[in-house]
Amino acid sequence: MNVPATAIQIQNVTRCFDELIAVDDVSLQVQTGTTLGLIGPNGAGKTSLLRMLATLSIPDSGDVLIQGLSVIHQPRMVRRLLGFMPAEFGYPRGLTIHEYLEYFGSLYQVPAAELARRIHDVKELTELTARDNVAVRGLSTGNRQRLLLARTLLHDPQILLLDEPASGLDPRARNELRGIIRTLASLGKTIVVSSHILPDLEEVSDSVAIMEAGRLVTHGSLEQLRHVSGETGLQIRIRVSGESVDGAAVILRSHSRVMSCEVRSAELIVRAEDGSGNELLQLLIAEQIPIIEYARETLDLEDIFMQSTAGRVT
Ligand SMILES: Nc1ncnc2c1ncn2[C@@H]1O[C@H](COP(=O)(O)OP(=O)(O)OP(=O)(O)O)[C@@H](O)[C@H]1O
Ligand SMILES: [Mg+2]
């Protein structure tokens, strides 16, 4: 099968709810086999966008092509290609895990002869270890999310849309989920995953899209976003002995290559021009500032998020 290089092409998509523009003229591409992290404040439009990709809601204008197929004009064919894991969990009452997976397998039209093997495979892939006859209603959040993901994988979709899969998970379960997402990526899946847990996304994403108030604020690899965010990317955390903090801040702030120097108790957070790290360190040593720790940091996704979004609430 010939798979197009671009798995998802979002073309000027807008979606309104009465007066509210939930998704505002968003254009974005996701390359086949890559993972896109989708972030944005509450109400930014992430779920509304994912639902349109999943053919569950129709754009008011624009279109989305999934492997070249339109979500508006060819929704049935699109649905075969993708799996959508919603943020909220609804389930038919009283089902066991096995019944639940069988039920969704038949909804996804998995051939009866293959269903048992598919159920086995998705349980293994998602590390769903709860027994088959356990009631879905009684599952822990961790197993519930695994079951939801397992259900999304039943028809072996090439494209996965995961809306806040880590929501409510404890640190160990989040770690395991990151591992599962990496495994799925290594199987060649194209993945769009939304989350508010930025370090998790940073670890699994090839590129990141930031939305705010319906608009796409920025999109690119982390490397590109660091660049675009206007900072050179050099951030240094310097810990000095307590009485030297103010003196060190004065020295650093008066240096031409330092853009900002923030004092946080005994630590200085310095943003400076690329390549100035050694020079600043030597300067502090020459000025006899007792340095306890000197660590170069790059901007992380949280820094970029805070810089890119204004904190508007819709
Ligand atoms: N069915 C709907 N009817 C009316 N308004 C809606 C509907 N769905 C979403 N909205 C509104 O659209 C905007 C975007 O919501 P959406 O759920 O897409 O944001 P989100 O980025 O997923 O937020 P969160 O991080 O809280 O999940 C919000 O203002 C929301 O209230
Ligand atoms: Mg949402």
General description of the model:
This protein is an alpha/beta fold. The protein folds into 2 domains: 6-227, Rossmann fold, CATH 3.40.50.300; 232-298, Alpha-Beta Plaits (2-Layer Sandwich), CATH 3.30.70. It contains 11 helices and 14 strands. It has helices at 46-53, 75-81, 97-107, 112-125, 141-153, 171-186, 198-204, 222-228, 245-253, 277-286, 301-308; strands at residues 6-17, 20-31, 35-39, 61-66, 69-70, 82-85, 159-163, 190-194, 207-212, 215-220, 234-240, 258-264, 267-272, 291-297. The strands form 3 sheets. It has a 6-stranded mixed beta sheet, sandwiched between helices. β9 (207-212) and β10 form a beta hairpin. α6 packs parallel to α7. The longest helix is centred in the middle third of the chain and has 16 residues, at 171-186. It is elongated, with a radius of gyration of 24 Å. The protein starts with 5 loop residues before the first strand and ends in a 6-residue tail after the last helix. 36% of the residues are buried. The mean pLDDT is 91. The protein binds adenosine-5'-triphosphate (ATP) and magnesium ion (MG). Magnesium ion is lined by residues 46-47, 87, 163.
Give a quick summary of the entry.
The protein is of the alpha/beta class and 314 residues long. The chain is built from eleven helices and 14 strands. The chain has two domains: 222 residues, Rossmann fold (3-Layer(aba) Sandwich); 67 residues, YebC, transcriptional regulation domain (Alpha-Beta Plaits), CATH 3.30.70.980.
